[in-house]
Every structure is written in structure tokens, then in C-alpha cells.
Design a protein that fits this description.
By secondary structure, the protein is mostly helical. Among the domains are: about 45 residues, no CATH class; about 90 residues. Helices cover about 50% and strands about 10% of the residues. The chain has eight helices and six strands; from the N terminus they run αββββββααααααα. Strands 1-4 form a two-stranded parallel ribbon. Strand 2 and strand 3 form a beta hairpin. Helix 4 crosses helix 5.
Length: about 200
Amino acid sequence: MLYNDLRQLEMWSVTFNAAKTEVPTITNNPSLHPPVRFCNQALNETTSHKHLGLIFHRSLTWHSHISALHHRAMSINNALIKIKNFLPRYSLLVLYCAYVLPIVHYGEIISANCTTTDSHLLESIQTAAAKIILGCLKTTSHEIILKDLGLTPLYVRRQFHILKAFRAILFGPCPSFLSILIPKFFLNLSDHSSGFHTNV
């Protein structure tokens, strides 16, 4: 089936660069298989692939993706260290919310089933930023510093965003390719819940 699809693509009036095309094999038990050829060229096989900002690994885990997010976010945290003596606490907090949080939240609904270890890795980003903003010791309790800055733990924010997205799928507006995935039971429930309101 794959080879037939690739042959169909070759018939399109579009120029493909086979050298930039990768083949990620989704499996926990990699085994030898014939090389996949496209445009008379064997395609490179990879263990992970980045698509729309999300890194998909062949094991279907999110460790590679979250590790990349952690690296990007911590590089910005390091930049905050260099300017923390020149800006008030509020300005540092605004910079964190504007430049670090969007990185952490990107694609979080999709990668929400990450392991506890990866979840803690994400939390360490916010904890490190909070300690930089407050100028406190590394040993300070993260619950205290988050409360002092009015920051919600990332796993709580993630759960809220998941519920918010599910509500949008259930009650609209939402693209049809998502709404058709909802079981009929929930669709019937939404028809009888016109009086249901929540502030999200």
C-alpha cells in the first residue's frame, strides 16, 4: 500500500526532493525491512520526525518532544538570569509569560499523556523561572514560589486546557473533523445541555 501511494505521488506534476524526505518507522520492535524508495532514491529512515512543531518518536512517546521544549525554554530562562538585576519582578514575570509559557503550552493537549518523568521535566521549567524572578535559593519550595507569583502548576493548566478544548468540541465552535470523533452519547448529551454554562 505504501509503495502504491508513493508511485501515485510521483505521477503528480510536483517536484519532490527525495533527499529531504524521511521515513519514520512507528514501532517498539524495529526490524529489518526493505528500503523505501521514492523518485528512484532510497529514503532516509529516522527514529523521530518533527511535524508542525511536534516531535513524533517511533515509540509513540513524547520524551524527545518534551526534551526539545525543555531545551528551548531553559535557554530563555538563562537569558532572564542575565537581565534579572536590571528589571523589576513584574517585568520578569511578564517576559516569562510572554516567551516561555507559549513554548511549554504548544501542542500540550496532544502530548498530555506524557510520562510522569516528562511532566516533572516541564514543571522544572516554570520552577526555574520562578526562582530566577524571585531571586530565591534553589532549595526553596516550589509550591511557595509559585503561590507568591500567582502561577498555577503546569499540569493543572494542561488539564484545564484539555477540558476547554473538549467543551469546544462538544458544544462548538469546532472543526467537523474533530466533532465527528465524539461518541453519539456525548452529542445527545450536549443537545439537552443548552442551559449548561461555564466560564473558560
